[in-house]
Amino acid sequence: MKKRRWLAGCLAMGCLAAAMTGCGSSSAEGAADGDTYKIAVIAPLTGDAAQYGMTYQNTLDILTDKVNAEGGVNGKQVEVTYFDDKKDAKEALNIANKIVADGSYIGVVGSQTSSCSMAAAPVFQEEGIPMISPQASNPQFTEIGDYIFSMQLSSSYEAELTAKMIVENYGYKNIAVIYSNDDWGVGVNTQFTDSIGEYGGSISADETFIAGQTKDFTPLISKMKESAPEAVFVAALYSDAAQILQQMKNLDFEVPVFATNTLYKQEFLDLAGANAEGILMLNSFELENTDEEYVYLKDAYEEKTGNQVDTYVTQSYDAMNLLLKAIEATDGDRVKMRDWIADVKDYRGVSGTFSFNDVRVPIKDEYVFTITDGAYAQVPDLVIKQ
């Protein structure tokens, strides 16, 4: 089947003022008129986070092709437009205004970062267009309004569970932390350090770096090593984390390493190599999931990209699929779509089983993953609950 893809670039500067009132208008039903249901996807398709945006695009192409080949939704085809925000909040805001001004989109998936998602969300909230971010973890994101959802466990929730795991399940109480100095990293660090104290542990060193820019981590690592921690917690994207691990090895700093699930990507294994052995992280889906839809996605994604599925794959798939199921159930009425999604309970998605809480973020149990012989493996019989 010929694949239907619509790739659009970012809107140039010039619609900033419209963010205060929204651009254009459409009724809840109007966006569903015609022979298609139109979904907008906002993601970084170029720049230093392009690998994440392209993961979304590859995944959602798989889902869209599957749905359309099976007859679409309510007899209509699904049309997806990809917008490149370049991991820039201003670009994301411009795109949001462009989408609203178009007047034909019934839902939005995106963006990948909390900052871009939070820049765009007020526009969609005001217009009444359901928006689901696969990865935005800032707790303030969904507080923007009742049309705003996230597939990502909040960064504070995951950070707390990670602290609990380190102290209660692995018995380490003196922890050094290194984190990226951005909204996400600062939020993770704040919750993690608070939670370590609540579970009876302590922070021996608390070091930060500029994501994508810091290249020499040795001064930070030296401070952590001097603090004599029992373990290290790394809150970083995979490219920075790979460098941190290499430089830890260069300094003979060998302690157990725990990390955020941002390191659950094939690209991290490729970059970090043997330095990644034994790292532990939480993840919200089961690696050995045998559900039919998960197996389909896993096989299709590996065939398409050569990479294994990760949370960027599973959560973007579930984000789009929830929109499509909401469209099917409500015939594309955006108010009813919002309510349908908010009422989701015990939903068995490819990213795990979850329910949305009252602030429209999922509540899930977390599984413990490690890296053994250059591959991810799930630690058996270990589930971390709040």
UniProtKB/TrEMBL annotation:
Residues 1-28 form the signal peptide. One of its GO terms (biological process) is amino acid transport. This is Penicillin-binding protein activator. Pfam families: Peripla_BP_6. Residues 36-374 form the Leucine-binding protein domain. SUPFAM superfamilies: Periplasmic binding protein-like I. InterPro entries: BCAA_transport (IPR051010), Leu-bd (IPR028081), Leu_Ile_Val-bd (IPR000709), Peripla_BP_I (IPR028082). Keywords: Amino-acid transport, Signal, Transport. It comes from the Bacteria. Belongs to the leucine-binding protein family.
